[in-house]
Amino acid sequence: MNLRKILLAIAAFGLLVAAARAQNGELALKANDRVTLSIGGIPDSEVAQIRGIYTVSDNGTINLLYIGEVRAAGMKPSSLQRSIEQTYIAREIYTRPTVTVSIDGDAATARMVYVISGCAKNGPVPYSPGMTILKAIGVAGGFTPFAKPSRTKLIRNGTTSEINLKDISADPRRDVPLQPEDQIIVPE
Questions:
Q1: What is the pLDDT of residue 129?
Q2: Which of 51, 76, 103, 166 is deepest in the core (most CB within 10 A)?
Q3: H or E element: which one contains 7?
């Protein structure tokens, strides 16, 4: 086996490991997110034409060589990877492409949850994977003296649910995982 084949095998293994790690705690893409796309398993002369940083358009797509617009908004990077690979294969452009997509670091940290009221510092709180409602309230400075945590509302994708944070404080295993763009309202 020559050196080039060994290096290609190592690179392919690295892409698989990176893809497996990326699937844990992935965020769905949204308009204006920047993603880094790498591709292998295609002619070297075409890698540079596809590899790069793409911005998800306002209509939720990225534009790729030979296949045009690909839906990206609402998809996790690992799903977008599979979609791109399958599209290249289905259109018989490439037989075995290997695609890796990752959210640009700045875009991942730009995700927010919003604490609307009832905390010392109401407003946007930077989202981080694994964030829970109690962690977000802690980042927002904790409850005000007049807050009523037993009647807290969580708004997610237009749906409102009421949560008794006193119960969660007594049993932290019941803490609610948050998603980017969630809104927390603690009545006063």
A1: 78
A2: 103
A3: helix 3-23
